[in-house]
Design brief:
By secondary structure, this protein is α/β, with parallel strands linked by helices. It has two domains: 5-127 and 253-332, FAD/NAD(P)-binding domain; 130-250, FAD/NAD(P)-binding domain (3-Layer(bba) Sandwich). 22% of the residues lie in helices and 30% in strands. Bound molecules: flavin-adenine dinucleotide.
Length: 335
């Protein structure tokens, strides 16, 4: 499709977001014999797994004691493609309009699409990492300062400093300790937000942990060479030579535009009922972006996959009320 193209073909379901939840929903709607389109803003599929932690092991998806995020995405893609869905990459959905009971218009950065139902699996939205906001650090972004790790082998033999105290920071420190020549972790307070087992592994490893320190500034000529840390209790300063700085101090998710699509939102995401229906008929949400009313929200892959199954079966039933909600067992499928 070229700029401002209009795809007039009406799909049964259009899934927005090609993270694990969107990919699994794409497979599942194939099972339900629904004409399916998947639209993803990025040039690749996999969502947070491909963008934020491709080289990290996932240990809590069924059937695998551990699997690299990038390999899990490959498996999901393979599974999703079995029913020949239409996939649009590099195309961001910017508006949704319900034209009538069974027709929704999706406006993207490249054109218009039409669908009887829509499943929003947009996760954290267009992910943006929180920046340190220190001008002397920011000027080295891409030249020693990295807010995301897409290839851990790029840090082979390097002196790496990670900033933060959450899962991402601790995960990357542990993942890089056997790749980099030295790993340092800088955190502003004694308390960590990472899993207890990981914190214990951190303190039993050769990773140098600086607490309670913050990054003050950075120096270098072409690339980052030196950082200065400040102890926030004593004011003491330390200057260290490093090759790479990886701040992992959180993500920002902007869900304010969902309101302009007529959807009810709360601080956790798009509000959905037990059928994963949003406040707009025909529009469903699942995965990290969904905020199930009166229910616990766990931003985990398996939670999103189960929600995708509910959403797709309910979308099928929405466009074809005589279709059973229960899809039958896949053991009987001929693929
Ligand atoms: C460092 C880290 C480690 C983690 N480890 C684990 C783990 O071990 N186990 C576990 O279960 N979970 C883990 N998680 C959480 C897990 O990654 C998420 O729960 C999961 O990715 C949610 O999937 P999703 O498909 O809902 O959203 P996402 O993975 O966020 O995918 C959403 C996709 O939608 C796209 N998108 C957004 N807006 C638009 C738009 N307007 N138009 C088109 N496309 C759009 C985005 O580009 C993205 O590709 C981890 C998360 C992080 C950050």
């Amino acid at each position: 499709m070229s700029l401002r193209d209009v795809d007039e073909e009406v799909y049964d379901i259009t899934i927005v977001g090609g993270g694990p939840v969107g990919l699994f929903a794409t497979f599942y709607s194939g099972i339900r014999n629904m004409k399916t389109k998947l639209i993803e803003a990025l040039p690749h599929l996999g969502g947070q797994l491909s963008t934020l932690y491709p080289d990290k092991y996932i240990r809590d998806v069924p059937g695998y004691t551990k699997i690299l995020a990038r390999d899990f995405v490959k498996k999901l893609e393979e599974q999703a493609m079995q029913f020949n869905p239409t996939i649009r990459l590099n195309e961001k959905v910017i508006a949704l309009r319900r034209l009538d009971e069974k027709l929704i218009e999706l406006e993207t950065t490249r054109g218009l699409h039409y669908s009887k139902t829509v499943l929003l699996a947009t996760g954290m939205g267009a992910i943006s990492m929180k920046k340190l906001g220190i001008p002397s650090v920011d000027r080295f972004e891409g030249r020693g300062v990295f807010y995301a790790v897409t290839d851990k082998w790029a840090f082979k033999g390097k002196k790496v400093m990670i900033v933060g105290g959450g899962d991402s920071a601790v995960d990357w420190a542990l993942n890089l300790k056997d790749v980099a020549s030295e790993v340092m972790l800088v955190h502003r307070r004694a308390g960590f937000r990472a899993q207890e087992a990981k914190i214990s592994e951190l303190f039993h490893s050769n990773i140098r942990v600086f607490i309670p320190y913050v990054v003050k500034d950075a120096h270098g000529t072409e690339r980052l060479e030196v950082v200065t840390l400040t102890n926030i209790e004593t004011g003491e300063e330390i200057t260290l030579e490093i090759d790479s700085l990886i701040p992992q101090i959180g993500y920002e998710m902007n869900n304010s535009f969902y309101k302009s699509w007529g959807l009810d939102v709360d601080e956790r995401g798009i509000k959905v009922n037990e059928k994963m229906e949003t406040s707009v008929p025909g529009i469903f949400a699942a995965g990290d972006v969904a905020s199930p009313i009166n229910s616990i929200k766990l931003n985990l892959i398996t939670m999103g996959l189960a929600q995708a199954i509910i959403a797709v079966n309910c979308a099928k039933n929405y466009i074809e009320p005589s279709a059973p909600m229960f899809p039958g067992y896949t053991a009987n499928l001929r693929l």
